[in-house]
Specification:
174 residues, 13% strand, four-stranded antiparallel beta sheet, single chain, globular
Length: 174
């Protein structure tokens, strides 16, 4: 896949992820902050406003603010930038691989924007489950990250064929 086609696909997915996530977070800020939880599909989905100072499942929320800044803003920003560069310039990535990576980058970038413009906090508003078995509270950026990660695992386990070596391996120590 050429760099220009890759860049267009990444840009499309990035804009979709960030756009959808930021719009839904804005709606959550405007309508869920002062309301009680809203139950959909007989309680399978619950909409409730939350701000998360930590990472996935609030990991690290108790860390000092300066540590969270370095870990969740600086390190995440560097990792996303590096991943974006790798995806753009790697010659071995097909359309499926670019899509899964772009979903992870798009979700990560949207949550990073939240942290930058919301005093280090990420807006979460979705919760799913049946009865007492429920997920943590999450957002659409988290869905994009999980979808990209799930695709990556699936592709790695069931689709990708192992590379064949160029020839037999010989012992060169003789």
């Amino acid at each position: 896949m050429g760099t220009l086609k890759k860049a267009a696909l990444i840009l499309l997915i990035l804009c979709s992820c960030v756009g959808c996530d930021q719009v839904t977070k804005s709606v959550a800020r405007n309508h869920l902050v002062s309301s009680s939880p809203i139950y959909l599909m007989e309680g399978v989905f619950r909409l409730q406003f939350s701000e998360n100072a930590g990472a996935f499942m609030s990991l690290g929320r108790g860390l000092p603010e300066s540590v969270r800044f370095w870990l969740l803003i600086i390190c995440v920003g560097v990792a996303l930038t590096g991943m974006l560069q790798f995806v753009l310039f790697s010659r071995e990535m097909d359309r499926f691989s670019v899509t899964e990576a772009a979903l992870i980058i798009g979700g990560g970038f949207s949550n990073l924007l939240d942290r930058l413009y919301n005093d280090g906090l990420v807006v979460d508003f979705l919760n799913a489950g049946i009865g007492p078995v429920r997920t943590g509270i999450f957002n659409l950026a988290d869905v994009a990250i999980m979808a990209g990660s799930g695709m990556l695992v699936y592709w790695s386990l069931f689709v990708k064929k192992p590379r064949r070596s160029a020839g037999p391996i010989t012992d060169r120590s003789e």
